[in-house]
Amino acid sequence: MALPPFADSSDVEARWRPLTDQEITQADALAADASALIRARFPGIDSQTDSGQVDPNVLIAVVSGMVKRAMVAPADGIAQQSETVGPYSRSQTYANPLGNVFLTQADITLILGYQPAGQSVAFANDTCRTSGDAYSRVYGW
After folding, report:
1. Alpha-carbon distance 31 to 25, whole Å?
2. Phi-psi region of 7 (alpha: psi -120 to 50; beta: other; left: phi over 0)
């Protein structure tokens, strides 16, 4: 039994624009793919959503964004193209040429919640002080 997607075409429409009937079908299929991708990347996400550890509105926003990224991808996948005639040069940059759904680092941060990579430390013996701004440090006082 397949689990329901975290978002559907109506969520995409609410965050983007009205969709045609064909786009609604595509958006619903992409939302199912995006939800499956999230479940594969974050096992147990459904139980975390049910318990309140993960906000379901965040998942709706992330899935809607994933669907929109896939739907706005150019049909040929070319995002940028340049051409010089003499002495010959050609360049193409591709952006999601297959129109797949994918998670960005920002999406992952939204799902996991902000988790700072560093931490502040206070020295018990007062050997390190900060005077003024954070960049002027005086050691050994």
Report:
1. 10
2. beta
